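[agent] plan:
  1. take the single chain provided in the ticket
  2. run structure prediction with default settings
  3. attach structure tokens to the ticket
  4. add a short note for the reviewer (M.T.)
[agent] executing step 1
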Amino acid sequence: MADLDVTSDDGNPSESGGDVQAQIQQAINQHQSDWATQFEQETGHKDVKSLMAAHQQELTQSKERENAYKTKFEKLQIDAAILAETGDAISPAIVKDLLAGKASCDENGTVTIDGKPVGDAIKDLLENNPFLAKAQGGTGSGAPAVSTAATQKMGRDDFNRMTPAQRQKFIKDGGEIV
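[agent] step 2 finished; step 3 output follows
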């Protein structure tokens, strides 16, 4: 680009166009320097790229903390739900340890075990493993109850006409062949 002579307001020739371009460039550089200084004072970062990197690191750390708290919350919800339903178990802690690994907690805090409500899953576990359940019924020696009813008596001919299953039941119930 060719240098143009520019006259001032009083009609006198002023600096050439090249000098104006230098002044504009100098003003731009000064403005950028002032902006960078103010940006660093306000944000603590030299440029936008370092600010974005710092924000990304903060975001990553926040997500990690969120996940850690979510995991703790889920574990507490699962433990509390299982322990609340283990009234029929000999050792609630053992039942909790057995089922906690199969349990899941949704975002509302609802706990399920293998897709079933906690109470149903514990009931199934105790039915399938009765040694984990408290004894049901009254206390006693464990000896079979003695029947006060008279024993049944049957003749040999009647006994022989019975099916094998009926014979076995008759004998098991204390029946007597005469």
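[agent] step 4 note for reviewer: Residues 48-128 form one domain.
[agent] ticket updated
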